[in-house]
Amino acid sequence: MKRSFIAIFMLLAMIPAVAMADWPQARHDAAHTSVADSPLNPPLAVEWQTSAGGEVFSSPVLYNGTLFVGSGDERKLLALDPATGDKKWSYATYASVESTPAAANGSVVFGSYDGYVYKLDAATGALQWKFDAKSGVLSSPLIYQDRVYVGTDDGSFYAIDFRTGGGLWSLAKAAQSSPAAEDGLIYVGALDGTFYALNASSGSQAWTYQTNDTFHSSPLAFNGTVYITTRSGTLYAFDAKGGQVRWTYDLGYYSDSTPSASDGTIYVGTYGGRIFALGENGTLKWESAYYGPIYQTVTVSGDVLYGASQKGTLFALDKAGNELWSYDLGESAFASPTVDGGRLYIGTMGGKVMAFGETTATPTPSPTSSPSATASTPFPGVLACVAALIAAGLCRKSR
């Protein structure tokens, strides 16, 4: 009997741990790379969908076994079970919650259009502090070096102490877009077309650049370069430290899409409905097929790119721009896909939060379907052996 259970434990130790990865804030990390921790390969099938009670602008965030997403009309932050979509808790504000939350150290931070930034206990939803930003918050908060950085609808930009909720410094008339950070600098674009690199600790300006345009998108920091698109569709590449313009690229369409990056390639969408892939020197590698106006950020998962459009198409491309899979959501999407923990999560303007998982079958897209899928059992051969050994051990005991 003892030898049987030793064998069982040895086999269990051989099974790789299926750990729940985290996507803890907007575009995955402080630099906004939008690269998932683990690969997810199409085709995908709907595992669950649930109602958010109102349109979803907020992109889902995955942290410590909980999915967080804001609801517009419902005016709440929702905490969902990522495996089932069941609600764990919710927190009501006085206006729509459209910004993507950020989570760290057991807490979740988000902004509401009621003019406050909230910090809650991630496990229970209990309020820890709220910061009066004095204007609606559409910007997604960034957690970086024990501070929260966020912009407001009137253009103000704040640095908030993550632990206490106290204001540390602010910049007037700066930004609505969501900030990115790298190497002690905060990068953010302003509505007046000024791009700022700010010292994370003091708020002093390391450098600025005036584009004579405006920014609705957010920056990406990647390999010593900062990328951002202007509203009119120019992609800028700045030297991250000095602010010199390394190159620009005319995308030919309006763009609110935040760039993402992987393996030396920059990906960005436009209102023209296509994804552009550019090298780090600014040369065009390819342009995708038409999917409808793209506001969202392209998500990179292994060798796959996931995108969504306002037309309601969720799609997967390879890194050469070829379509691998697509799905008709049945309604428009402004949220960017979140990929980690073996699933893709996305919200829709019809008020749905949806989860997709890998499937070996070819799925039949249906915008009205809402299957409740049971996750497939990994490593069936190994588990079958474990079951056999357990059975053998029990038989020996009964004798």
Structural class: mainly beta
Q: CATH topology of the largest domain, what is it called?
A: Methylamine Dehydrogenase, Chain H
Shape: globular
Low-pLDDT runs: 1-20, 366-399
Count of individual helical segments:
2
- Spatially, the strands of the biggest sheet line up as 1-32-31-30
Distance between the termini: 11 Å
**Which oligomeric form is depicted?**
single chain
Task: Please explain how this structure is put together.
- The chain has 399 residues and is mostly beta strands.
- It has 2 domains: 1-18 and 378-399, no CATH class; 22-374, Methylamine Dehydrogenase, Chain H (7 Propeller), CATH 2.130.10.10.
- The protein contains 2 helices and 32 strands.
- The strands form 8 sheets. It has a 4-stranded antiparallel sheet with strand order 1-32-31-30, with no helix packed on it. Strands 2-3-4-5 form a 4-stranded antiparallel sheet, with no helix packed on it.
- Strand 4 and strand 5 (87-92) form a beta hairpin.
- It starts with a helix and ends with a helix.
- InterPro entries: PQQ_b-propeller_rpt (IPR018391), PQQ_rpt_dom (IPR002372), Quinoprotein_ADH-like_sf (IPR011047), WD40/YVTN_repeat-like_dom_sf (IPR015943).
- Pfam families: PQQ_2.
- This is Pyrrolo-quinoline quinone repeat domain-containing protein.
